[in-house]
Amino acid sequence: MKAIITVVGQDQVGIVATVATKLATLKINIVDISQTLMAHNFTMMLSGEWDATQLSFAAAKTALDQLGQQTGLTIHIQRQELFDAIQKL
């Protein structure tokens, strides 16, 4: 399965490491990543992929929602095909 994950929030030490560690725990491979910091606001977008027989999209979403709550970040995950379709509109 392929997905686009976005992370937004107040800048803090270790955001990339925290998200990457969670993705590694879930066995989600980071294929591409971009991040920026503007006026203390952190934004990251990444493309991830994993074996859908090992981890459902719903389970990945739940885990990332929980991480967002724990860290005070807004984390969204969207299936790659849906993201691509929206970008074509």
TrEMBL record:
InterPro entries found in the cross-reference section: ACT-like_dom_sf (IPR045865), ACT_dom (IPR002912), UPF0237/GcvR_regulator (IPR050990), UPF0237_ACT (IPR022986)
One Pfam family this sequence matches: ACT_6
UniProt protein name: UPF0237 protein ACFP3T_02165
CDD domains xrefs: ACT_1ZPV
Similarity comment text for this entry: Belongs to the UPF0237 family.
Source organism superkingdom: Bacteria
Record domain ACT: where: 4-78
